[in-house]
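If you are new to this repository, start here. Below is one unmodified record pulled from the training split, so you can see the exact layout before writing a loader.
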Amino acid sequence: MTAFNFFKRLHCDIIFLQETHWTAKLENTINSEWNGQIIYNHGTANSCGVAILLHARLANQLTQPKRDSHGRILATKITLDDQELNLVNIYAPRSNTERQSFYRSLSNYLTDDDNNIIAGDFNSIADPQRGKSGGNANARQSANTVLQTISAQFHLIDIWHSHHYNQLCYTWTGKKPTDNSIIRTRIDKFLLSTSVSHLVTDSAIKPYPFSDHDYISIKLNMDNIQRGPGYWHFNNELLQDACFEAEIKDFWTQWETQYNTFHDPRLWWDKAKKHFKNIAIRRASINNKIKRHAKLQLTCHLTRLHARSSSGLDHDIENYLLAKEHLKQFELKELEAIQLRSKARFLEEGEHSTRYFYSLKKKRKADQTIRLLTKDNLDMISAPFDLLQETHHFYQLLYSAEPHDKQASTNFLNIQTPTLTTAERTSCEEQLNENELLEALNTMENNKSPDFDGLTTNFYKHFWPLLVPD
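And here is the target side for that same chain:
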């Protein structure tokens, strides 16, 4: 049970163990030592055996596990933050010939949706120059060809090697029986699908005192979705902020003097909108800090009032209930913001639905993220830069001019359609006047952005008297 005590101190959520040498008779004893769920695939008391240990907070999220009959492979699927991962724990044979058959069988435990995480003792070295020190550098490793084929088929990468490409580190240390010389190898690995590799924020090989193998660990951040700047939307609450309004007015007074320095008024206006956005972001950040501090103060005050209310005095109890109502309003404001970002259509007071809205917000974020694309040549890509490049290429081709039938174009354009009179054309080409602009603005729905800059119709309606002279 030394492994349990060791890994408990590390606060691991999921643990892959190999060479457990456990049997079914030991399961009750083992389960009593671990605070969570354990999935077994037993070998014998003297060989093999693999297990996956999950912390109690991850329990009841697993699918039916799959096992081989030799205590060497154990696979199960787990859902974390609305993302399903296929976990595969392996203990490969030492014989090169046996490893070939073993690696071929792995495809039966992997999924095609590119969310695989394979961990364990692979008993093979991908690169003898970097993965082995001492011993026979020419030992047979032809099974690696099979593993490389499987890795290519399921888009798997060695995540530690990817993070530490220029480093030498080993996971097993032993001595050669014939001359007692030291041999070191990196045979314990995590192979991850490229589509989930970006979730790994750290990978490390660290000493484990109870075995000749060291352990390898990775940290996953399920929210670590690489994204661009995203879409900004103006917070209409700022229109009630006197400091924000004063900043906008001060900026505009100065900005009007810059009008003649621009050769195109549209550039002057576009740059002004960027300044509006920056002022709004800066002011919103300040307000959020003030709100967080006020909420912290209120929470501390509420804790003190709760202690006082135990005296039973009506005055203390009234103060406690009043502070509790104030804190409730803080929480509801935050929940409304989350609801807006998650675009949920309902919000019920009295229900502890905060977790739901946070989850819905995260799910929307994940759903809007492209993790994998298949190119025209059927190659699959998942690296963020490659995804951006392929997306740009796709739309570049989509909107590029193509050869066309000139006669067909002429026939189409010569179709008799209603046309404007000369007076109507002149009216359409005239400059828009103030009343027409204001009328158009007032017909627009509130909380909507008429352009891609994120500034809402509420912003333009509020500052119309300031902006209209220009």
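Two things worth knowing about this chain: The first strand starts at residue 14 and ends at 18. The CA atoms of residues 178 and 234 lie 74 Å apart.
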